[in-house]
Design brief:
The complex is a heterotrimer of chains A (about 220), B (about 600) and C (about 240).
Chain A (H helix, E strand, L loop, with lengths): L12 H32 L15 H30 L9 E8 L2 E6 L12 E4 L1 E5 L3 E8 L4 E5 L4 E5 L5 E6 L4 E7 L11 E7 L1 H16 L1
Helix pairs in contact in A: 1-2
Chain B lengths: L19 H6 L4 H31 L23 H37 L7 H20 L22 H4 L3 H30 L12 H32 L13 H18 L2 H15 L6 H14 L15 H29 L8 H24 L1 H7 L3 H31 L1 E2 L2 H27 L19 H31 L1 E2 L67
Antiparallel strand pairs in B: 1-2
Helix pairs in contact in B: 2-3, 2-4, 2-16, 3-4, 3-6, 3-7, 3-14, 4-6, 6-7, 7-8, 7-9, 7-10, 9-12, 9-14, 10-11, 11-12, 12-14, 12-15, 14-15, 15-16
Chain C lengths: L1 H20 L11 E10 L14 H4 L23 E6 L14 E6 L2 E3 L2 E5 L3 E6 L5 E6 L6 E5 L3 E6 L4 E8 L6 E7 L4 E3 L5 E7 L2 E9 L3 E9 L4 E3 L2 E4 L2
Parallel strand pairs in C: 1-16, 1-17, 3-6, 5-11
Antiparallel strand pairs in C: 1-13, 2-12, 2-14, 3-4, 6-9, 7-8, 7-10, 10-11, 14-15
The chains are: A alpha+beta (about 220), B mainly alpha (about 600), C mainly beta (about 240).
């Protein structure tokens, strides 16, 4: 059992896992400060006969310090986070040569349309497969997300990619898989009775394996 | 109801010739209204808990017949085995009952009503009849929501967040009238909140006793005041959205249905524009009451009172501009993701300030660990975890990974249970004597506290870990995913902890009810506190004071060098005190 | 005397109203007439797409080859299966058959509905069975009747009834998008579905002139008028042309 973030299988894991760890360290320090502090105070300042509390209304310098340090930390965190956010989800984040795959979500299946031999979506050689997402490793993939009915959400934990799929909107998201293998795509937005089973298999393959699969699948689909 | 607020108590109270119905049922007395909210909300807290227990049964023991499940209808749980449609109703109604009918009314309906006039030194609210209506509209909303569990096709089932178009169209959800009843009920809840807020704001501004300046108000009152403003501005947005949703459901409009030209994201923006201020409504009063209790338990003034006030105002103000952090991956413009991230990270700062000030209050204090103090300190410890986990979500790239997972479920339960509910246990215990004239059992209060603390952390801490692993929310059976199957033992552990946690709450309930009749009779000021309410007998009489007290100082003058005792009430006049300049309102 | 007369008149009116209100439906006349026939198919037999059940291994395992879509099923003898034939008009206005006690079963087996087209009487139970033991979500897109949308995550049976006639109610599974079935709800028992030999039979008809309709999910509807006398068998064939 893997007691941390899932296996790293995309280029996003670097920034996202790194950011996660950085936040864990920052919040960890705050956590230890507060919890140990509380326990310390609870023990040291408990009521005992003859003791009197220290009468004070506060300390302005302390207020300034413990306002400024969190504020500066949060601003820094925001700047770093935003840098990666723009890279991952920004309007111009999708690499121009990304390989397109159409994903149409519907209660309760993923209809995945591949661009066929010409590598372009919306042409005659496209074909659709149910609940199986095949992607070639090592190149940017752009998924064009659309929904037939309600809001669904495209989520592959190992790729650190999540994007809600909204009816009435055509949303593009991208990722680049780095490790060949079999993963799972889960629907991550409650979409009705079958939400818990709206699952697709994700196959990350070498370019050769992918091409071979594509040829065979296109043939089967045309029958 | 029979043991509450005894009437004429010596020369202190007005002559009370009201009938039983006017005194206890259709009462305009703010204290009775507060107690009515208390009894009804505790009932809904139990309902919310029972719904959660059923969810945890399914998650811990999927597909197995639930003990007692035989009472459920065949369409929901044949042979006691929960069906997916029932599971998502449980998820939806647990959240709905807990937010709207338990935590919000317990914090606001109970304590704003009960405490405000007592703590600012006046006889009742500015509009007592409107106040009475705020309770009855709340009760109607609750009955409507409860009834939705029993209608054909069951209750609403799109999550407490009710995202459209799943919630708007029956053919997508499989529900029917239950969805409409949710909207109708929420409209009543909104109305109740608005009526209450009108009272709280007006009363605090206009009816403070002589000498009760703004910066002598206890932090509980400050937080309730700011909360009331949030409620007044936020609840109408929810009610409006609920009306639009209801129209989509029954009269053929298509506000939220993209198939007919509507917009799915419109619901989310409206809901979260309300929803984020709502969660501050659910925490600020808790923070305020915790401040009062920690100062009392530490026998020290609150550290940084002015900072605390500014922090409350800052949290409330910033709370209006962070709603999009619930929507980072919703499909909204990513640039908005950037702006909402910044405002969300910034809102962490006033919460941090408050935490350090609570610690500062305890530092070099003379700590008394009565039951309310135990809960208040636990509040700080647990709220910090909830607040810190929020930082992970605020960082948008990380949110991509943890949005809609159990990491979020852990976060929200740490702030709402570890935070608000612990604060409520403390607050109910603290003001119980002033409500009912008796004390709750201290030993049983301690047993309840410790067991709750242990089982609560066992239930919710592991959810951070399964959320990190990618476990999504609202899944009827996570084992459908290969990568989630290894976590089943953890789900079992969480479920068993949850069952034990629920069972432990029976201790609180029994203590609460039993003490109404058999609790030790309470003295006037059992906690040796400084607020104005402690100048009245326990329980406080109708009309509170015949003549309102005068206020000579702030509420946190503990261990003051001016007196030998370690507390100095706001209303006690020392030889060195001057009369305040402000003249009391006529008739007071 | 006048008063008595008025009372008697009122009583009579009330009695007649009560009698009309509680009147039992006219029991179906003991008839022996039969309408039978074949549904022929002309033209090019369309190639039905294959169904890829790779993502549902439990169902895929139940097939030797690869199952195909059932929208158009042309039998080996050139007839069309899954055509729903029923008496559309011709029964007396007062006719109302009581619903049979036993249910009609719709089974989900191998991620397909069995049968693909079926008929049921108003008030009769539809027993929806899940023989696969995996999640099926059965959705009835009824218009005259109350629609429903329920889940069956394991081997189980759910019962539903329909209280209004409706031709046809579309049934689908939202977990398996290829699963479709069609249900005809009728106030009488005179309906049938053409099977593997393309034939249908409507039995027990009282003498009279009937309009019968043949319905196919892709090729639409056709009607025929048949007069039945006594216990004879009349033939009425239909022919649908492939497009």
């Amino acid at each position: 059992m893997h007691w941390w973030l899932p296996l790293k299988a995309s280029t996003f894991t670097g920034p996202i896992d790194g950011l996660f760890l950085a936040i864990l360290i920052i919040t960890g320090i705050a956590f230890v400060l507060v919890e140990v502090g509380l326990i310390w105070f609870v023990v040291k300042y408990r009521q005992r006969p003859g003791r009197k509390a220290f009468y004070t209304h506060g300390n302005t310098r302390a207020e300034v310090i413990w306002t400024t340090i969190p504020a500066v930390t949060m601003v820094a965190l925001g700047l770093v986070s935003n840098h990666y956010w723009v890279q991952i989800k920004g309007r111009n984040s999708i690499p121009p040569n990304a390989y397109p795959i159409g994903i149409h979500a519907k209660q309760f299946e993923w209809q995945i349309t591949y661009p066929g031999a010409d590598g372009k979506l919306g042409t005659g050689d496209d074909f659709t497969v149910r609940n199986q997402l095949h992607v070639p490793v090592g190149r940017p993939i752009m998924v064009q997300l659309s929904s037939e009915d309600v809001i669904h959400s495209f989520y592959v934990p190992q790729f650190r990619v999540r994007q809600d799929v909204v009816p009435g909107m055509d949303i593009k998201a991208w990722f680049q898989a780095t490790v060949p293998g079999t993963y799972e795509l889960g629907c991550s937005q409650l979409c009705g009775l079958g939400h818990y089973r709206m699952r697709a298999q994700v196959f990350v393959q070498t370019q050769d394996d992918y091409d071979a699969w594509m040829k065979q699948a296109a043939q089967e689909a045309s029958q | 109801m029979t043991s509450v607020a005894a009437t004429a108590h010596g020369a202190q109270a007005h002559h009370d010739d009201r009938s039983f119905v006017r005194k206890y049922i259709f009462s305009t007395d703010h204290k009775i209204i507060g107690i009515q909210f208390l009894f009804v909300s505790l009932f809904f807290l139990l309902v919310g808990g029972l719904l959660a227990m059923q969810m945890r049964w399914q998650l811990g023991f999927p597909g197995k017949p639930m003990p007692g499940g035989g009472v459920l209808p065949e369409t929901m749980a044949p042979g006691g085995v929960i069906l997916p449609e029932y599971y998502i109703q449980l998820v939806t109604m647990h959240g709905t009952f807990m937010v709207f009918f338990a935590i919000m009314p317990l914090l606001v309906g109970v304590f704003a009503n009960f405490l405000i006039p007592l703590k600012i030194g006046t006889h009742d609210m500015a509009f007592p009849r409107i106040n009475m209506w705020s309770f009855w509209t709340f009760l109607i909303g609750g009955v409507v929501m409860l009834s939705s569990l029993f209608v054909p096709d069951g209750a609403a089932r799109a999550g407490w967040t009710m995202y459209a178009p799943l919630s708007a169209r029956h053919d997508y959800s499989g529900a029917s009238i239950g969805q409409e009843l949710w909207s109708v009920s929420i409209i009543f809840v909104g109305l109740s909140s608005i009526l209450g807020s009108l009272n709280y704001i007006t009363t605090i501004i206009n009816n403070r006793a002589p000498g009760m300046t703004w910066f002598r108000l206890p932090l509980s009152v400050w937080s309730l005041f700011i909360t009331a403003i949030l409620g007044l501005l936020a609840l109408p947005v929810l009610s409006g959205a609920a009306i639009m949703l209801l129209f989509d459901q029954i009269i053929g409009t298509h506000f939220f249905d993209p198939a007919a030209g509507g917009q799915a994201l419109l619901w989310q923006h409206l809901f979260w524009f309300f929803g984020h201020p709502e969660v501050y409504i659910l925490i600020l009063p808790a923070m305020g009451m915790v401040s009062d209790i920690i100062a009392n338990g530490s026998r020290k003034p609150i550290f940084g009172y002015h900072s605390m006030v500014f922090a409350i105002v800052a949290i409330a103000f910033l709370g209006w501009i962070v709603w999009g952090h619930h929507m980072f991956v919703s499909g909204m413009n990513p640039t908005l993701g950037s702006s909402f991230m910044v405002s969300t990270l910034v809102i962490a700062v006033p919460s941090a300030v408050k935490t350090f000030n609570w610690m500062g209050t305890m530092w070099r204090g003379n700590l008394r660990f009565h039951v309310p103090m135990l809960h208040a300190v636990a509040f700080v410890a647990m709220f910090v975890i909830g607040g810190l986990s929020g930082i992970f979500m605020a960082a948008t790239p990380v949110d991509m990974q943890i949005h809609d997972t159990y990491f979020i479920v852990a976060h929200l339960h740490y702030v709402l249970f570890g935070g608000s509910l612990f604060a409520l246990f403390g607050a109910i215990t603290y003001w119980y004597p002033k409500m009912f004239g008796r004390l709750m059992s201290e030993p049983w209060g301690k047993v309840h506290f410790w067991l709750t603390f242990i089982f609560y952390n066992c239930t919710f801490f592991p959810m951070h870990i399964t959320g990190m692993a990618g476990e999504m929310r609202r899944l009827y059976d996570p084992n459908q995913y290969t990568f989630l199957q290894p976590w089943q033992p953890m789900r079992v552990f969480i479920s068993i902890s949850a069952f034990l946690l629920f069972a432990t709450q029976l201790i609180f309930f029994v203590n609460f009810w039993w003490s109404l009749w058999k609790g030790q009779k309470a003295p006037q000021n059992p906690w040796e506190d400084n607020g104005l309410e402690w100048s009245l007998p326990s329980p406080a009489p109708h009309g509170n004071w015949e003549k309102v007290p005068t206020v000579y100082r702030g509420p946190y003058e503990f261990s003051s060098p001016q007196v030998a005792e370690d507390y100095l009430p706001q209303y006690k006049k020392l030889p060195t005190d001057r009369e305040p300049a402000r003249v009391p309102l006529a008739g007071h | 005397m006048r008063k008595l007369g008025a009372m008697a008149a009122t009583g009579a009116v009330l009695a007649l109203t009560l009698a009309a209100w509680t009147r039992q439906p006219t029991p179906p006349a003991q008839g022996g007439g039969t309408i039978s026939g074949k549904v022929k198919f002309t033209g090019t037999k369309p190639v039905m797409p294959k169904i890829d059940m790779s993502e549902e291994p439990k169902c895929k395992a139940k097939y030797q080859g690869v199952p195909t879509d059932e929208t158009v099923v042309v039998n080996a003898n050139g007839t069309l299966a899954n055509v729903f034939v029923y008496v559309k008009s011709g029964l007396p206005a007062s006719y109302a058959a009581p619903a049979p006690a036993g249910p009609v079963t719709l089974d989900q087996d191998g991620c397909r509905y069995h049968p693909h087209v079926l008929g049921i009487q108003v008030g009769q139970a539809l027993a929806i069975k899940n023989s696969d033991g995996i999640l099926h979500n059965i959705k009835a897109k009824a218009k005259a009747n109350r629609p429903f949308n329920i889940s069956q995550p394991s081997v189980m049976t759910s019962n539903k009834t329909f209280d209004k006639p409706e031709v046809m109610v579309a049934l689908e599974c939202n977990v398996h998008g290829w699963m479709h079935a069609w249900l005809g709800v009728l106030p009488h028992p005179f309906f049938g579905v053409s099977g593997a030999d393309g034939s249908f039979m409507l039995k027990g008809l009282a003498p009279g002139t009937y309009t019968i309709e043949a319905w196919h999910e892709k090729y639409g509807t056709q009607t025929a008028t048949v007069t039945v006398a006594g216990s004879e068998t009349k033939t009425a064939d239909f022919s649908f042309a492939g497009k």
